[in-house]
Amino acid sequence: MIGVSPAYYISNNTSHFKLSDVIDSLSWMSENSFGAIQLEVFHYAQLNEWNYTNLSLLKEELIKNNIVVSQFVAHFLMNCFESLDSISSDNGLEELRFLSAILKHFSLTKTITIPIPPYKDERDGRELDLFYIKVSKAVKICGDYGFKVALEPQPKSLAADLDYLNKIDGIGLNLDPGHILCSGIDPFNLDKKILSKVYATHLCENDGVVNNSLVPGYEITEERWENLISGLIDAGFENSFDVEIICEKNLVETEYKKGNFFLENICIQNNRYRGTI
């Protein structure tokens, strides 16, 4: 299944996109062979929209258009992991509990992603232990409601080296090849142990220098993308393959359809063909 990340809505409507923008997109998604979307709260103010009426309508339209929600991205929590002060506090955790309760009530998804931003302070040896403690609290809160938690590490974040996967029980990775490339790691050559902990995806690429989110297949070879998709499938990945593209508004539909075609007809179909052979 191919889906879209919230970058679709950000490119179309800026980071202040509304739930109504998500609802309005669903018929286009269905008509263009996308089977999944991701929900996101980017700014705290957007929490005001998460009420019973709006979410009931969203649920109704998801069912009508045969679209599933592959994950919820708690982007509004980013500043809770950016400094020594923020990781030393419990800021954001009650909001995470609130959203977990809502997501469970409406049975919207099984996975919650927390993006981890670049760390702003000097590192003095305390930060990783505090970071692991706070993330563990987030995992516990989400787990109480039946959710898996994935981190989406940005370059220069406390999770950028992916070592957290070995330090925190039950944690996963939201695989964003663009972020990982700019962190100095080759996302197209990850071992099976890491791939087995991928709970969700933001599939994009860049040159490894500028942290862009470009359409898969833009410059990186088909073979490398096929190997990544094959590795995920072999490692037991069961969620949607979600495209993440940041682009000009007038290019959104074209770029996302390109990403869909590339992943489904080049990467996934070629893997199925080889498997059959």
General description of the model:
The protein is α/β, with parallel strands linked by helices. The protein is 42% helix and 14% strand. It has ten helices and eight strands. Strands 2-3-4-5-6-7 form a six-stranded parallel sheet. Strands 1-8 form a two-stranded parallel ribbon. 42% of the residues are buried.
List the helices and strands and how they pair.
Layout: E1 2-4, H1 7-13, H2 19-31, E2 36-40, H3 52-64, E3 68-73, H4 84-88, H5 93-105, E4 111-116, H6 127-144, E5 148-153, E6 171-175, H7 177-181, H8 192-195, E7 198-201, H9 222-234, E8 241-243, H10 252-276
Parallel strand pairs: 1-8, 2-3, 3-4, 4-5, 5-6, 6-7
Q: Could you give the order of strands across the largest sheet?
A: 2-3-4-5-6-7
Report the portion of residues in β strands. Answer: 5-15%
**Class derived from helix and strand content:** alpha/beta
- What's the helix count? 10
Task: Tell me the distance between the termini.
Answer: 22 Å
Helix content: 40-55%
Largest sheet: 6 strands, parallel
Number of strands: 8
Radius of gyration: 18 Å
Order of helices and strands: EHHEHEHHEHEEHHEHEH
* Overall pLDDT score: 94
Q: Which residues form runs of ≥5 with pLDDT under 50?
A: 272-277
Shape: globular
